[in-house]
Amino acid sequence: MRVVVAVLLFVTAAHAALWGLFQEKQPAPDFRGILPSLSYTPFEPGHTVVEGDAEKIRADVKKLSTLTRAIRLYASTEGNELVPAIAAEFGLKVTVGAWIDKDKDRNKREIEAVITLARKNSNVIGVVVGNETIYRGEQIPIENLVSPPDLESEGARIQREEAQRLQEAEAQPEDKRAEAVKWTTAQNNVFRLGRLIQRIKKSVNVPVTTGEIWNIWRDYPQLANSADFIGAHVLPYWENFTDKQAVDQAVAMYQLLRDQFPGKRIVIAEFGWPSAGYNLRNAEPGTFEQAAVLRNFVARADAIGMDYNIVEAIDKPWKFNEGGVGPYWGILDASGEPKFSWTGPIVNPNYWKLALIALLVGILLSLPILRLDRPTVMQTVVLSAAANGVGAWVATVFAYWDGHYFVFGSAFALTLGLILLVPLVLIAMARIEEIAAVAFGRGPRRLITKSAPLAPATIGENVAFPKVSIHIPAYFEPVEMLKQTLDAVSRLDYPNFECVCIINNTPDPAFWQPIQDHCRALGERFKFINAEKVQGFKAGALRIAMERTAADAEIIGIIDADYVVHPDWLKDLVPVFADPRVGLVQAPQEHRDGDLSLMHYIMNGEYAGFFDIGMVQRNEHNAIIVHGTMCLIRRSAMDMAGGWSSDTICEDTDLGLTIQQQGWLTHYTNVRYGEGLLPDTYEAFKKQRHRWAYGGFQIVKKHWRRFLPGASRLSPDQRREFSLGWLNWLGAESLGVVVAILNLIWVPIVAFADIAVPDKILTLPIIGSFIVSLVHFIALYRLRVKIKAGQMLGAMIAAMSVQWTVSRAVAQGLITEHLAFARTSKGGLSRMSIEFQAFWEAVIGVLLLIGAAVLVVTNGYKEVREIYIFAGVLVLQSLPFLAAVAIALLENSRINSFVFWRNSALRTAELIGIRPVRLPTVARPSQPVASEVRREAN
């Protein structure tokens, strides 16, 4: 324990050291003066002035009075008209603005209001008519340019001049015509804006200009003829400049305009950098970047005597219409608190608070390690590192939540995403724990291994052999297959057993008559039952078998109708019941037809992982999943548990869990004591997995109350293993589908609504979880499952391919109570369905790929990193769906046959002159089976 605690402290200290190592500190010029001007927008467009607005403005202006000598407004109505008088109370100058667009009525109100403000308030030092009106392509209505008496004559003249200019543009050669028309349209707008500026100049006694991007002034110099000074906007972020280049860009554009307009006053009417949002190509927003850019800019501007205005004073969360960075241009946050200091090194003032959150969460999640039984040093290091990694992610979530603003939609989306990520993170941690246990932990201690060779069980006079009753339920099974199963039972090297073969709901004598005759031929140990109209699925048949079981049978053995057992099954495993606490012993399944086709080959590899990895680990906590065949159950334990129940379609797992809830010990061996048959087709494989998942969800609904404290004799470890097991299987597959579908819905919003996904807290954890799952699969298969790398890869594809099947079963479990039991078609060449077995998987998989392509294409100009990551996530999420498509296509193709591969190898060998590589031989066809899967009526 001391070593474990020391390791936990070491990892925590290392985590803290990493926070210290990666703390950002940037030097920047100090600024202790007062800014010349800040942009200020008190209210959202469309605001109606109400009581209390003046106090809100007064509180804002009071804060700004300590930072700036003047403020710039962008409109003169909707509450902006209150600002100049209040600013005067704090000695602030104001540059008022008139918002101009295509709405003539609003323009009229703005023009009248801005003239009134300029006349009545002595602290107004300038008027800005329109904000990026030309850049936005706004054509000012003629009604706003001339007085009503002159409207008809003057308006007609303006339109004639504009039409003439457009006609000249359209007369240009075809290859230049479109550009000429575009330029001329903008020129006409420039003339209209210039006329409006001149009209307002006649009504006020302060300088009048307009606010436009610097290149508009450069390209349309006639605009400067109307303005008293140049009000140029230089926003390097929108021009794809890095934060390191931003100040140089601003100074260069300032100098360009000075050179182009000598003697004209040049004001950089907007300069700023956003503190959050998404990148625009090389331009990265951020608090550090904003602080460095502004401090460097102010130092350079003051050094060269530049007039400037910083955009903006206070963050405005409603500015999401200006893109993801829209709300984050302020030097104060929305609550009026400074985002950075103007002196000293640039640091994150909340950095160590976030570090503390990360460390506390890491410590909290590391505490369960103390409950582990003798963990190794490396096992502890891996688990603690994972816990601290989750802690760092939680701190990142806090930082994002604290540093961003949310409207209802974005808050809902983020909250939903985080809710879905919590189980995803738990699943990833559970898989990391399993990796650590298998790769670095101590070996299994409860696993039953093959003992040394023993004398045959039939020898020895004083050896007690408890009687075993072996039950074989069958339903429309191939006759020859079932005979093989019975013959294998007859060869068991155990002196005291009986076999009860019950065929249920199979009225066709061709299926039961030969089995009845075969049981008679095998002797009195074999009992045959033909039960018609049995209620309760397979469990109902097993209940009837129990009624015909010998009274002195102490142990019940269950095998499926396709299973050929080895002679030493009972001889090796029955002695485990010498411990009176043992209620159940489970052996794994194996399959004898894995070489039937490539599809069967990879399916067999997929099954092996469950029996060699998951079951071995669960056995260490007495929490195995009972899977029916090759199971031995103490009769008294079965009676105590209430016998076979028909309220789930996984009666074996249900009974096993009930036995464990009664306090019985269970044991597992990974030794193969027999072989069964794989599902005949991919359709049968999916139906079997659907039944298991649906039955598993039924068991969750049936047993969840018994997982509450004191509700059963389950230990904490057993509760944990079952809960995480259900989450890791049913939850992970369902969650994968839900998140994929939600992401599909989110694609058009990201692609066309200019909204990105926060990568660090939503998309990167999904990628991380995928990597953990990939490492989990590959590492544990290499360590525990004795199959070749190619079969392991196929097994991974097969495991992924049932994600949609499992999630559909869970969804049906949520809305239904019972589904009919579907027999898994085995034992022969079942007729494959004419329907494509992965239709919906193909639809969703292709949609995910299309969504990724749409994101990449629409992001071509902006190159927003989060959107590329999101597109990558969609591709990853498509893999399970495409895996199902791949297997469905494989099943019907030539390459599914090993004959194809053998012939290809021979032909290749002949071409290059080497001997062919040996491949698995082709299995001989087995006994045909009924063409369709019949459903048992309940």
Task: Compose a concise summary of this entry.
With 938 residues, this protein is an alpha/beta fold.
Secondary-structure map:
Elements (H helix, E strand, L loop, with lengths): L1 H20 L16 E2 L13 H12 L5 E3 L10 H7 L3 E6 L5 H17 L3 E8 L19 H20 L3 H28 L6 E6 H6 L2 H5 L3 E4 L12 H15 L5 E6 L15 H18 L2 E4 L40 H16 L10 H27 L4 H33 L27 E7 L4 H12 L6 E8 L4 H14 L3 E6 L5 H11 L7 E4 L5 E2 L3 H5 L8 E5 L11 H22 L11 E4 H7 L9 H11 L3 E4 L5 E2 L6 H22 L12 H37 L6 H26 L4 H13 L1 H13 L23 H20 L6 H27 L6 H15 L26
Parallel strand pairs: 1-2, 2-3, 3-4, 4-5, 5-6, 6-7, 7-8, 9-10, 9-12, 10-11, 14-16
Antiparallel strand pairs: 12-15, 13-17, 14-15
Helix pairs in contact: 1-11, 1-12, 5-6, 9-10, 11-12, 12-13, 13-22, 13-23, 14-15, 18-24, 21-25, 22-25, 22-26, 22-27, 23-24, 23-27, 24-27, 26-27
